[in-house]
Structures are given as C-alpha cells and as structure tokens.
Amino acid sequence: MTQAHQLMAAGLHLGYADREIVSDLNLNIPAGKLTVIVGANACGKSTLLRGLARLLTPTRGAAYLDGKPIHQMPTREVATLLGALPQSPIAPDAITVADLVGRGRYPHQGWFRRWTPEDDAAVAEALGATDMGELADRPVDELSGGQRQRVWIAMALAQQTDLLLLDEPTTFLDINHQVEVLDLLTDLVKERDRTVVVVLHDLNLACRYADHIVAMKSGKIVTEGRPVDVMTEEVVREVFGMTSRIVVDPISDTPMIVPIGRHHVEKAVA
Amino acid sequence: MTAIDTSYIASVRSQRENKGRRVTLGLVFALVLASAAALTLGDFPVPPGEILRSLFSPLTGLTNKGVDFIVLQVRVPRLFLALLSGAAFGLSGIIFQTLLRNPLASPDIIGIAHGASAAAVFCIIVLGWTGLAVSLGAFAGALLTAFAIYILAWRNGVTAYRVVLIGIGAAAMLSAVISYLFTRARLFEVQQAMAWLVGSLNAARPGDSIVLAAMLVVTLPLLVILVRGLDGLELGDDTAHALGTRVEQTRLGLMIAGVALAAFATAAVGPVGFVAFVSGPIARRLMGGAGRGIPQAGLVGALVMLVSDLLAQHALPNLQLPTGVVTGGFGAVFLLWLLIVSGRSGRVN
Q: Is the CB of A120 less than 8 angstroms away from the CB of B284?
C-alpha cells in the first residue's frame, strides 16, 4: 500500500459465450473513495465487477490497473494490488477463522508457504479491523451470517491490497449486519485510504454510504456521481422501471428513494 | 476496530500446526507398529530381533538363508507394496475429493478405477495377456478414462459437478463393458480376471514396488508445489483467481497427479476398493479443522491398506482372502456411516 492505485475501464465489453452483458463501458474508479454500483437484476453490475477484478477476460476493450490492461498482468501481481470478494465464496468444512483469513496471504507467500511475522501481523490487523479477534480459533461453520461475511472481508483485507472489490457483500444479511458491513467498508476508506468498489442491492443504503454511485442498465452506465447530485426520480425510473419519490434521508441528508407501486399509495398523486 | 496482538494470531496458528504434527506422528507410529506386525506374523513367525538382523544382513553379513528368504523376499516386498500403493490411493483420493469438493468424488467412484479394470479385463480375456502387461494395460485404461471424463466435462473450464456426474456415468458404462467381456470369456480367464479385479497383494514380488516408488518420487515434489494452490481453489474459482491462483493450470496439474497416483497404484495391486475413498475423510476427521490433511491422507491410506492386508492374511485360519475383500467390507461400512453422519448434520456434500 504505497500510493493510490488507479482502476479504470475503457471501451470495455464483457460477456459469456455469445451473449454480451456489458458493452463499450468507460469508468474511472475514484481513488480513496467508496464507489457503489447499483442497478436492476441482470443489468451487468456483477459482470462489470468481475471484469474490473480480472475474473473475466474482456471480449473487447480492457480494464486498466495503473494504466496497464489488467487481464494481461500476471495473476499474482494483480492479487497483491487488488483484492476481490466474489458473490458466493465457499468455506471448506471445519476451517477456522484464522486459517481462512490467512488464505488472503497467498499472493504474498512463496511456493513453500513460509509464514512470516508479517503474515501473522496482516491476519491480526484484518481480524482487528473486522472485530473478529476473539473468534480467531473458531470454525467458520459455527458463525452467524454477518460474522461469516466479516470473515470473508477480513480475508480480503489480509491480502493488503489498495483496491478492494466486493460483489453484494450484504446480500442475505439482516439489516443490522448490512449496516455493520457498510460501516466497516467506510472505515477502510476513511481511516486506511483504501479504494473500495461494491455492488449493492439496497438503493437507500447505497445512496447513504456511496461517495460515488454508478447506476447501470442493460450493460451501460446510466449515470454516475455523488448520490446527492445524480439520484433523481427520472434515474430511478430509467434504471428500475419504477416510479418513486425521492426525499431527504433524515439521518444523513442523502437521497432516499420511496418506491411507488400500485397499492398503498394514497398520497402519491403528483 | 480493536487491535489484535500479533503474537496471539501466531499462537493460534502454531496450535493448529502442532495438532497437524501430532496427527502425523501418531499415524507414523501406527504404521511402524503395523509394519512390524506384518514382518513378524505368518505361518512362520519371525521374532522382532531376527527381523532386525535379517533387514540389516546385507550390511552386517549375518545371514540365515531360510529366515532371510521369508523376510526379504516375501514379507518386505509385500509390506512395501502395501505401503506405497495405500499411500498412492490415499493421496489420489483426497486430491479428487478436495478438488471436486465432494467426499464421493474419489477415483474409485468416478470411473478411473473402472477404466483401469475394464482395460485389465480386456487384456486378460481378449488379448490373453498376463503379469506386467496387464498392469500396463490397466494404467493406460485409467489414463484414457480420466482424459475422456475431462474432455466430456469441459465447457469453458471444468466444474466439479460435471466431472462427478460424467465420472459416475463412465463408471456405469465401463462396468457394463466388464460384464460383457465376462459373458464371452472362458471360465479360466474369468477366474484370472476376477482375481485381478478384487485386488490383491498375494502375488507381491520384490520388483513390484520399484515402478510405484519411482513414480511417487516423481509425483510427490510436484504435489508439494501444486497443493499450495488448493489454498485458493478450495474457496471457489473466483476467489482463487482473486487470490492470484492460476486456477485452470493448478487444477489440471493436480488432476494429472491424482490420476497418475491412482493409475499406478491400480496397475500394481488391482482396483483395491475404497482405500482412496476412505482415507481422505478419515484424515480430515483426525485433523479436525487443523488443515487439509493431504499428507495425512497418504499415511491413512498406507495404514488402511497394510491393516486390511494383515486381516486378509491372518483373520481367518487356513484361508488367505484377497485384500480387496477386506477393504471392500470396511469401506462399505464406512460409506454407510458417512451417509448417516452427513445426513444427520444436514450436509450431503
């Protein structure tokens, strides 16, 4: 972690087999900020994240890390600069918290897995940052959903990369754990100067926590910027095909989207 | 955020490593005991002192022709063959089980052993081969089957799920081939083929272990390097990739190593059932979360093979069973137990 690393996409096309998911996309990830990608299901937000994280080779164009096309860089080198947490990682049976978090040290270790004091220090720091210290020797199977998600984030932290990309880290979590995870990511940005990119489902939490929000539809960016500046009723209609009213979040002064459906909408007359 | 002491993390890690070491030492100790028993027991019991003298006789010159023949020409080769083939089966089993994330995915279930068997039966019945030629045929059969399964399972990369399903399909098809070959064979050939199919150490000769030993010498260093990649692969392909693992290369390399281990072991002793299947889960259980237990699974495999062979030789008076009969019985009980336990805890894979 020295100077901030720069991640961007230029003319990026991503797809599987003959189906194009993301087409001709340009994006600059602001360094030292929390960027949130939102959009309806199947809009390509996870695919974009996978492309940015080098988990998917672009069909055309490229994602660039510090100006170099990321899919042409050596896997291990990328892994020391950029950490990524996919949507559903698998915890091996009976693995302990410290062991799983230690896996994040993989790109920093040689062929013969020599553990150094730095590795232990990185694991300790990651467990501290996620408040998982006292559970270090517990099996991951025994943890709650929120704790488990924190273990995975701790693993990505132990990788000690400047950039961190997470795909829906709050899905399946109770609301209190969702807030906990987003607070943790904000700590990382504010206190440790990390650049974090996260795909989120919940628009209101996205608007509250994002420094920079990217709204996507059918593989293209509809708008991006500070949530206060870009989140409008028109954008919500275009991205989600739903009418809504935007009010000011009483807690954070960020935009809050109140959906308007067909029922229980007595006060919706414009 | 709370600060965590680095020394605490180091102590949690060294506790885990110590547990792994204790399991390994315990297994090595058990292997030494079982080996001593294997050299001592028999129609002609040899006391431990005599065994030591005999083992060192090429160096010391203190010979006793009769005893030396039994120890060095009969029991030692059989012991080595049991240890090496057991270790190879155990390692091969846990590699596949870990890679495919499924305890059912051992080479004796996903068709690789069946490929070796079908080829061996073909060699015996159709080509009339015997001895080493049959082993080579079995080896080629295992490799060919593994290759076919890999190709059929390939669709922009290989997923565990497809390999297991296609493997089970291949196993069923190859069993049918074996049955077909039996229907058109003469009784003597069928007997010969059946003896090979059950798997046995009864015919162990001094030279049998050499090929297997050489193969292990080549494979083990490769395995030590590749196994590191499992750190990531165990967490899913995307996570592995994000951690800097070369996913396809590592997986292919491990599969080749696993197939080679299973193929050589099967070629040497026949498809001794269930050794590959039980070793991994037993090693895992012994480790209890203290690691993947891959070297330990090799040791468990050697121990299972050796103890099964001892039982096969000495459990029933006046009757030598083929080793595969004992491992088969043991393995079937273990399979039931595994299904009951995993059914209870609600986990099937």
A: no
Rounded percentage of chain A residues whose pLDDT exceeds 70: 97
Contact list in B for residue A120 (CB cut-off 8 A) is: 6-7, 9-10, 13
Q: Given CA atoms A125, A131, A133, A136 in this order, what sign does their dihedral have? A: negative
Name the nearest CA neighbour of A208 among A147, A260, A146, A257: A257
Q: Per the structure block, which two tokens stand in for B292?
A: 């993947």
| Nearest CB to B244; choose among A75, A88, A136 | A75
The type of residue at A103 is R
**A206 contacts: CB under 8 Å, gap ≥ 6:** A36, A38, A200, A213, A227
Contacts (Cβ under 8 Å, ≥6 apart) of B85: B201, B212, B265, B268, B269, B272, B305
Residue A18 contacts B where some CB pair is shorter than 8 Å: no
Taking the Cβ of residue B19 and every Cβ of chain A, the question of whether any pair is shorter than 8 Å is answered with: no
Say which of A55, A121, A139 has its CB closest to residue B289. Answer: A139
CB contact under 8 A, A103 and B235: yes
- Give the pLDDT mean for B3-8: 82
Place of tokens 């920079």: A212
pLDDT recorded at residue B94: 94
| DSSP state letter for A123 | H
Angle at B25 between CA B19 and CA B30, to 5 degrees: 130
The confidence band for A269, taking pLDDT boundaries of 50, 70 and 90, is low
Lowest mean pLDDT among A213-222, B188-197, B303-312: B188-197
d(Cα B65, Cα B322) in Å, to the nearest integer? 28
Nearest CA in chain A to B342: A93
Helical (H) or strand (E) element with A48: helix A45-52
Distances (CA, A) of A265 to A232, A249, A256: 19, 20, 17
Kindly state whether A51 is in contact with chain B, defined as any CB-CB distance less than 8 angstroms: no
Please tell me the distance from the alpha carbon of residue B253 to that of residue B260, in angstroms, as a whole number.
Answer: 11
Rounded CA separation B33/B49 (Å): 14
- With the C-alpha atoms ordered A87, A90, A96, A100, is the resulting torsion angle positive or negative? negative
Choice among A89-103, A159-173, B188-202 with the minimum mean pLDDT: B188-202
Rounded Cα distance between A263 and A154, Å, is 43
Local confidence band at A1 (pLDDT 50, 70, 90 cut-offs)? very low
Residues B18-73: pLDDT tens digits? 999 999 999 999 999 999 999 998 888 888 888 888 888 888 888 888 888 888 88
Nearest-neighbour CA in chain B from A51: distance (Å): 11
